[in-house]
Amino acid sequence: MALRNILKEGDETLSRRCRPVTDFNKRLHELLDDMAETMLSANGVGLAAPQVGVLRRAVVVLETNTPEGEECVIELVNPEIVESSGEQTEPEGCLSVPGAYGMVTRPDHVKVRAQDRNGEWFELEGVGLTARAFCHEIDHLDGHMFTELCDHILSEEELEAYYAEQRQQEGTE
Ligand code: NI
């Protein structure tokens, strides 16, 4: 496994549409392994292949809502959203836009259909942050960034105020 360089906003690779994965070979497995390692080392919750310069439809997402509280990496190859419901509006960021967050509205619950690293199709549901990450990463595969969905990048003060309000709400619940 190896860390890969994460492309930054402005790189034209990030605005291109990715092609489907057709070969479920060692090269794909290495890509997915490297993407997981790169995401974890950057403290991200998702990473899409175009962010490491590969224009193929593959993403990794960190699932944090497991019953045991353990995190696990989900690999989605050729993913598509087949169902979505609910709504959440929260600060969202991206490893390609370090340190920047904007308020983005996403579905609160999504079901994706995807292939695993060996080409087997499966369906998976995500809620909350995981649903958000599924949507965000799949957007990358079509050349879209979260910055297209928020009206501005939050200032440090706005972000602090948002989290302070969240803490206050949690405290009074
Ligand atoms: Ni991103």
Architecture overview:
With 173 residues, the protein is of the alpha+beta class. The chain has one domain (12-170): Peptide deformylase (Peptide Deformylase, Alpha-Beta Complex), CATH 3.90.45. The chain has three helices and seven strands, in the order αβββββββαα. The protein has helices spanning 26-41, 129-141, 156-172, and strands at residues 46-48, 58-63, 72-85, 88-92, 102-106, 109-115, 121-127. The strands form two sheets. It has a five-stranded antiparallel sheet with strand order 1-2-3-6-7, with helices on both faces. β2 and β3 (72-85) form a beta hairpin. The termini are far apart. The model has no long low-confidence stretch (mean pLDDT 96). The structure holds nickel (II) ion.
Structural class of the secondary structure composition?
alpha+beta
Low-confidence blocks of residues? none
> What is the C-alpha radius of gyration, as a whole number of Å?
16 Å
CATH class: Alpha Beta
Q: Characterize the largest beta sheet: strand count, sense, and whether it forms a barrel.
A: 5 strands, antiparallel
Number of domains: 1
Listing every helix as H and every strand as E from the N terminus to the C terminus, the arrangement reads HEEEEEEEHH
Just name the CATH architecture.
Answer: Alpha-Beta Complex
SS strand fraction: 25-35%
What ligands can be seen in this structure?
A: nickel (II) ion
CA(first)-CA(last) distance: 44 Å
CATH superfamily: Peptide deformylase
If strands are numbered along the chain, what order do they take across the biggest sheet? 1-2-3-6-7
What is the 3D form?
A: globular
Helical segment tally? 3
Measured as a percent range, the helix fraction is 25-40%
Instruction: Tally the beta strands.
Output: 7
CATH third-tier fold name: Peptide Deformylase
The averaged pLDDT comes out at 96
